[in-house]
Structures are given as structure tokens and as C-alpha cells.
Write a structure and sequence with these properties.
By secondary structure, chain A is an alpha/beta fold. Chain A is built from 12 helices and 15 strands. Chain A has 2 domains: 238 residues, 3-Layer(aba) Sandwich (Peroxisomal Thiolase, Chain A, domain 1), CATH 3.40.47.10; 150 residues, Thiolase/Chalcone synthase (Peroxisomal Thiolase, Chain A, domain 1, 3-Layer(aba) Sandwich). Chain B folds into 2 domains: 241 residues, Peroxisomal Thiolase, Chain A, domain 1 (3-Layer(aba) Sandwich), CATH 3.40.47.10; 148 residues, Thiolase/Chalcone synthase (Peroxisomal Thiolase, Chain A, domain 1). Classes of the chains: A alpha/beta (406), B alpha/beta (407).
């Protein structure tokens, strides 16, 4: 069985594009919250979102015709290119028949459904053309990347596991590499800001009016965001053979389903516990070895409490000693991209020996009484990180990411 | 590690049991007809293969079905039948099961309606209950919720090959030891948004001219008809299945995926991706083309059926392997197609009957495939190969055998 390592990180986020810019933003506890610019929110009670500003895919891939691509596809392409650059890959030397792409998303290209409705309401539906057949189906995102780079080692899959999708995609790539079926995978998640997603969370009364405060007593909800995270994953043998700079190793993952509620987690964190335990089991990692948890941490009252319960359940007496942080306190919730971006951040945490903070955490919730690394980044050597993600449909996914050891 | 099929369930326009589904598949009668679900006025194609008079209470009893959309209900019903058939429905450890579901659009109809309400009447008229169903994994989530399945819950999207890829993904997960048993299948609903788009793209039969000939491999073919429904296979690790006394219907022998990097733009690379993927699946099964007794093609009546025919001719040149194309009956059910094909292949291996392609009256001159028949044939089949190729380049191939064939 092949060991699987992370050699490249590419991100498009509301607080920075590119791994280095994101890292700088996290260390300064910057946030990406602002009045929504992409559509009119005057009919809503909330107006804040976490949109990606000043993004042009041509800045990263000059040859791409952006007019034919949806926003989530553009994010994914740019993140993929940045990840390949970060990994030091020369495309000419990659064997495309041994490489593949797998992505995650919550909504794919929902902006096309918005256009469809706009056309329908204006009674000019034929203007819509075949876009919902050609460009909307969400598998277009990984297929566009695979076609661009000529990666044909496996079918480019979309695993739309909602807000846990990035972890689901990375886990699938891990399996393909681990079994030796391919040598290299681009894996991650991507989602575009949309009025549909915003309306939905607004109707669930889940959006905070100002900023996102995970684990705080005065938290008022999540803030919808957008972006992409893509990792270059390779077999350890392949990465060593080409002398790659290795961030960390992925040693396993765990999936589960709450089978409890479509939009709310299980109050005891049942599925979250299962996902963490499976991940530890597959990676042959003991609870005592974990020294950082990248939380799902959306900032909704129920998520943060359930997640705290789940961590206590898995980590027992050690729960309060493991630093936990939620970067959604700064990025907002980038949906299907979130756990992929967070996996990239775990890789940087291991490399840099610094943990990003949970921002906006001034008033602790008595029910959330663990170490959430409030407000300031912390110097801390991390050998083993656990990356957690939970989603609509009750689906959960955890990854274990480790410093590379012989 | 061997992965076996221990049960199946289906909800389709052809029937709501595997027996009925397969009988219809082996018959001459078509279930295609005028669309009743939505207004097709102005569309060039007005025909589809629809599940008519669908009432969830007929399958699930009298309950409040408002929180569910059509694809979720299809999936819940087909999954329930597969659990029942495999003998899992009443087991105490049912909660350890997981599921893998292939789909292309899943919730597009719900998403469009949710947004339409908000745009026409204002955001406060968008229903929170519908929002839960706007995620693309909604059907998988609702199915796990209904049946209490707490294991792996993956949704797979890769176009028309999604259902077959879901079966392959689940097979690999079981073979890797991640789960002892998984439900794997596909779901799709017929709805206005996708119907309109395929009509605009000129891909459905009759959307370019007045004739409707969605007949796979036939010289007169001029596009496909959209279909809908859901089917699941119960997949299990063979030893565990035997230990619990399960009835084994078939074995999964090989699976592979591939990709045409031209995304269907270049016929030559598309054909090569198809034949390469068949070759990789044969390799995974440790087989040669000589081991394949029958083939379920994914041809759906499109002009590009020719590509699959060429790829088949390339791989099976030395042998006359009988070929069928279930989409002649099911229509192009997108994410559900591969699951329908897999279920039909299990039935072919069990019964020795390979469904015909009704109204098939020969292919164009020079067509590279001559093992297609209008009539249902008796075949001596221990092993069958199933193709799932999307128009835009995704390839999946699955090989199934009769139980015990690998020993």
C-alpha cells in the first residue's frame, strides 16, 4: 500500500487568494465579512456575506476562456493551478494517464439556475440555451480541470457531500493513491456565492448579522462564503523520487452519517464521533497523538455545542488539552470548499508550527469549554491534525493529517 | 476480497420490482409517452419515459411526504426494496450500513422552485423545508435518514456514468475493508429544467426533426428520451455475506473508470478512452475479452452510439459477443442509468435472457457492430460487461459474474 502525501496547496478564499496570502490573513485574524455585493439583499433581514473579491481566473490561467466557465469552476481551476505550482510540478513531466481529479461541492454552479429562473420570469427561456445540460451538472468542475491538465487516470468525480464535500473528495483521492491505482491526484472543493444558498440560510435564521463567532456565547450564526481549496496529493514514493517538498502525510479518514436530521447535527454528535473514530482507526493513530483539531465550527448555536460534545466523547479527559480552532470565524463558511481549505491549513499548521486562532471569541459559551485558541495565533508544534467537517444530509467526514515521519 | 450482490430494488417506469422491470425490458412494449409532469409546450421533443401516477403512499404507507422531493422518494423506495430483498431490513445491525448514490441533477427541480419562489414573491416565501433538499446529496441524506443508515454516505456525480460509478466506488470501498456492506445505486427525476436544457441542446429524439427514433444503434436513431427512477444493489463482502446466510445473486469481478480529455469533442480520443476503460476493467477482473459472454451497452439512441460500437469492435474484434442496450426501454435516466443496467445484468446472468432492442432494424452501412438484436435472446452467460460512458468523456465499466464463477 502506498503512503499519501500533500505536496501542494491552492486556495481561493474571502481573506486571501493563494496559500501564503491565506496564511498571512489567518495569522492577522483578518475576516472577509462585508455587505453582499453580488445581489441585492434589501428584502432580507441580513446583509453580510463572505465573498471573494477581485478574482480573475485569467490571472492564474491566462489561456482560459472565462466566459464559458461558471464561478465555482473558475475558483477550482485557479486553486488547482496554484496547488500544482506550489507542488513544483512541471506539467510536461506528469504522466496524465496516472493522474486524476476529484472535487467536492455543495451547490456546483447554482448561478446558472438563477439565470434560468431570471429567463423564465422574463418569459425568454429560450435565451437560456442548453447551459443546464452542458455547464450546470456539477461534474463539470472536476472534468474541466482534468481536461485542462490532460489527467485521464480515472474519471474526474464530483462528490457533492455538501459542507463535508472537500474531505469526502480528499478521502477518495487518498483511496485511489493508497491502492496504487494512480500516482497523483488533484483533490478539493469549490463553491460559488449564490442568492439560493444565501436565501436558504437566511430562511433557516442561521446567518449572523455582522460577524461569525464560533464557540462564543454571543454567537449568532454562520456567514455564507465562497471559494475553493485544492490539494496536490501524491504517493510518498513518487513525491520522494521527484524531490518534492512535502507538507504532510494523510494517514486516513472516517465517514459517517447521523441519519438523524437533514440540516441539524445529532445532539450527542453521534455521527461526528463515528467519523473521528474511524479516521483514527484507519490511520492507526491514538487519541493521545492528536495535537490540533481543525473544527467544523460554523458559529451556529447547535453546531458548536454538538461538535464540542463530540470532541469530548472521542478525546475524553484529553479534550481540553487539544487546541481547536475554527477558521470559519474569519473566512465564513465556504461550503463545499471549506474542509478542503481547512485541510490545506492543517498542512500549513504542521509545516509552520503555528495554529490559526478562532477569531471573535471574547465571551466563552459555558457549554463550549475547550481550548479554541481564541483571537491570537499560537506557536505550537503539531505532529497530528484532525480535520472535521459536517454537512446537510447528516453526512460527516474527518481526516487525519500527520507530519511526515519515516 | 470478493464483493457480491445480495439484493436489489428498483422503482422505474418499467416496473417497481426487479422481475417486472426485467420482464418489460425483455418485451416489445415501450413505456415512453407524452410528458405529463410538466408542460412541454414549445419544446421540440415532448416525449419521455416517465413514472406515471407516482404516489409514495403506495410504497411507504400514509405519511407526510411534504419534506421529501421526487428523487429522494424514488431513492428511499428503491433502497428499501433492496434492503428488504437482501434480508437487511429487519436486522439489528442495519444502522452500520452505508450507501453510495449516483446522480446527475438530483435536486435541480427543487433548487429551481426554491429560487423561483424567492424571486417572484420575495425571500420569505422560499420554504426552509425545501432548502434542506437543495443540496445535491439530498436524496442520499433523506434515504439514510429514512432507513437509519449511519455508515458511509457518498453521492457520486459524473454524468450518465454516475450510477455505474457509484456501484464501482462502493465495490472498492468494501474491497478496501472500509465497510462490510453498502447499498449502491442511482437516482434521477424527470423535470422541466433538465428536459428543457436537453431539448435546447438538440440531444433528445425529435428535438432536431419531427421523427422520434430513440433506438440505440439503429440507423434511424436521432437522440434519446429522458427517463427517471432509482435502482440499488446491495453489495457485501463475500465471506460476511455467506456468514449471515445471504442469498448471493452475482459477483462484482472488475471495475475501472477513465476519461476522454477532449470531453467528447474528438471522436478518436473518445473511442480510445472507452476501449481503454474496458481494457482496464478486464485487467482488474483478470480476464480477457474471451471471458465476456454478453454486454450491456450504454447506447441511448444518440448519434454518438457509433463511438461505443467502434470501441466494442476494437476490444471484442475476435469474438461475437451479444450486445444489448437497456436504454432502449429505460430512456436516458442519467444518474440512474448505470444502476438500471447493473440490475438488468444481474437478471440476465440469473435467467440467461438478454433483452432485445425493440424496433431495431439494422445500423447504418459500415457500422462496426453486428451482434445487436431486436429480439430478446437466450444466452449462455456466466459473465457480463456493462458500459457507462457520459457524452462529455467520463467512462466507467463494470464486470459481473454468476455467483461462484471466480472459484
Amino acid at each position: 500500500m502506498e503512503r499519501v502525501v500533500i505536496t501542494g496547496v491552492g486556495v481561493v478564499t474571502p481573506i486571501g487568494i493563494g496559500a501564503a496570502n491565506l496564511w498571512d490573513g489567518l495569522m492577522r485574524a483578518e475576516h472577509g465579512f462585508a455587505e453582499v455585493a453580488s445581489f441585492d439583499t434589501s428584502a432580507y433581514k441580513v446583509h453580510v456575506g463572505a465573498e471573494v473579491k477581485r478574482f480573475r481566473v485569467e490571472d492564474y490561467l491566462p489561456d482560459v476562456d472565462a466566459s464559458t466557465l461558471g464561478r465555482a469552476t473558475r475558483f477550482a481551476l485557479a486553486a488547482g493551478q496554484m496547488a500544482l505550482d506550489d507542488a513544483g510540478h512541471d506539467l510536461k513531466t506528469i504522466d496524465g494517464t496516472r493522474a486524476g481529479v476529484v472535487m467536492g461541492t455543495t451547490s456546483g454552479e447554482p448561478n446558472l439556475i438563477e439565470t434560468f429562473n431570471d429567463c423564465k420570469i422574463a418569459e425568454r427561456l429560450d435565451d437560456m440555451g442548453p447551459a443546464l445540460a452542458r455547464r450546470y451538472p456539477c461534474h463539470n468542475i472536476p472534468a474541466t480541470l482534468a481536461a485542462h491538465y490532460g489527467f485521464s487516470g480515472c474519471a474526474p468525480l464530483m462528490i457533492p457531500a455538501a459542507c463535508a464535500a472537500g474531505n469526502y473528495a480528499i478521502a477518495h483521492a487518498w483511496e485511489r493513491l493508497h491502492s496504487g491505482r494512480v500516482d497523483m491526484m488533484l483533490a478539493g472543493g469549490s463553491d460559488a456565492f449564490s442568492r439560493i444558498t444565501y436565501t436558504g440560510f437566511a430562511r433557516l435564521m442561521a446567518i449572523a448579522p455582522d460577524i461569525c463567532r464560533p464557540f462564543a456565547n454571543n454567537r449568532k450564526g454562520m456567514i455564507p462564503g465562497e471559494g475553493a481549496g485544492v490539494l496536490v496529493l501524491e504517493t510518498l514514493s513518487g513525491a520522494r523520487a521527484r524531490g518534492a517538498d512535502i507538507y504532510a502525510e494523510i494517514t486516513g479518514y472516517g465517514f459517517s452519517c447521523d441519519a438523524h436530521h437533514m440540516t441539524g447535527g445529532h445532539p450527542d454528535g453521534r455521527g461526528a464521533v463515528g467519523a473521528m473514530r474511524h479516521a483514527l482507526e484507519i490511520s492507526r493513530t491514538r487519541v493521545e497523538e492528536v495535537d490540533y483539531i481543525s473544527a467544523h465550527g460554523t458559529g451556529t448555536p447547535s453546531n458548536d455545542r454538538n461538535e464540542t460534545t463530540a470532541v469530548k466523547n472521542v478525546f475524553g479527559d484529553r479534550a481540553a488539552q487539544v487546541p481547536i480552532s475554527s477558521i470559519k470565524s474569519m473566512l465564513g463558511h465556504t461550503m463545499g470548499a471549506a474542509s478542503a481549505i481547512e485541510a490545506g491549513v492543517c498542512a500549513m499548521v504542521i509545516r509552520n508550527g503555528l495554529i490559526p486562532p478562532t477569531a471573535n471569541l471574547d465571551e466563552p459559551d459555558p457549554y463550549c469549554d475547550l481550548d479554541y485558541v481564541p483571537n491570537e495565533p499560537r506557536k505550537h508544534s503539531v505532529r497530528v491534525a484532525m480535520n472535521n467537517a459536517y454537512a446537510f444530509g447528516g453526512t460527516n467526514a474527518s481526516l487525519v493529517i500527520r507530519a511526515l515521519e519515516d | 476480497m470478493t464483493v457480491v450482490v445480495t439484493g436489489y430494488g428498483v422503482l422505474s417506469p418499467l416496473g417497481d420490482t426487479p422481475e417486472l422491470f426485467f420482464e418489460t425490458l425483455c418485451g416489445e412494449e415501450t413505456k415512453a409517452g407524452p410528458v405529463s409532469l410538466f408542460d412541454t409546450e414549445g419544446a421540440r421533443c415532448r416525449t419521455a419515459v416517465e413514472i406515471r401516477d407516482f404516489h409514495p403512499k403506495d410504497f411507504l404507507g400514509k405519511k407526510n411526504y411534504r419534506p421529501f422531493n421526487r428523487p429522494a422518494l424514488f431513492s428511499i423506495i428503491a433502497a428499501g426494496k433492496a434492503l428488504e430483498h437482501a434480508g437487511w431490513a429487519e436486522r439489528e445491525d442495519k444502522y452500520t450500513l452505508g450507501m453510495v448514490l449516483g446522480t446527475t441533477y438530483c435536486s435541480v427541480n427543487t433548487i429551481a422552485a426554491f429560487d423561483h419562489n424567492a424571486q417572484v414573491a420575495g425571500p420569505k416565501y422560499a420554504k426552509p423545508m425545501d432548502f434542506a433538499n437543495t443540496v445535491i446529496n439530498a436524496a442520499a441524506g433523506q434515504t439514510a435518514l429514512w432507513h437509519g443508515l449511519q455508515g458511509i454516505n457518498s453521492t457520486i456525480c459524473c454524468g450518465e456514468s454516475s450510477g455505474l460509478t457509484a456501484v464501482g466506488y462502493a465495490t472498492e470501498m468494501i474491497a478496501a475493508g472500509r465497510s462490510k456492506a453498502l447499498l449502491a445505486g442511482g437516482v434521477e427525476e424527470l423535470c422541466f429544467a433538465s428536459f428543457h436544457a436537453f431539448d435546447q441542446a438538440g440531444l433528445t429524439a425529435g428535438s432536431r426533426d419531427d421523427r422520434v427514433f430513440p433506438i440505440p444503434f439503429d440507423a434511424r436513431r436521432n437522440g434519446f428520451l429522458l427517463g427517471e427512477g432509482s435502482a440499488y444493489l446491495m453489495l457485501e463482502e463475500a465471506e460476511a455475506a455467506r456468514a449471515r446466510g445471504a442469498h448471493i445473486l452475482a459477483e462484482v469481478r472488475g471495475y475501472a473508470t477513465g476519461f476522454d480529455v477532449s470531453r467528447g469533442e474528438d471522436a478518436e480520443t473518445a473511442i480510445r478512452a472507452m476501449s481503454n476503460t474496458m481494457g482496464k476493467a478486464l485487467e482488474a477482473a483478470e480476464m480477457t475479452p474471451d471471458n465476456i459472454d454478453c454486454i450491456s451497452a450504454c447506447a441511448n439512441g444518440s448519434l454518438i452510439d457509433l463511438r461505443e460500437a467502434k470501441a466494442l469492435a476494437e476490444v471484442f474484434s475476435a469474438k461475437n459477443v451479444p450486445v444489448t442496450a437497456p436504454k432502449a426501454h429505460t430512456g436516458e435516466a442519467l444518474g440512474a442509468s448505470g444502476a438500471f443496467q447493473a440490475l438488468a445484468m444481474v437478471e440476465t446472468l440469473r435467467s440467461g435472457r438478454l433483452p432485445g432492442i425493440p424496433r431495431y432494424n439494422g445500423s447504418e452501412e459500415g457500422f462496426p457492430l453486428n451482434t445487436v438484436s431486436a429480439h430478446t435472446r437466450d444466452v449462455e452467460a456466466a459473465t457480463g460487461l456493462i458500459n457507462g460512458f457520459s457524452e462529455d468523456g467520463n467512462c466507467a465499466v463494470l464486470i459481473l459474474s454468476r455467483p461462484g464463477a471466480s472459484q
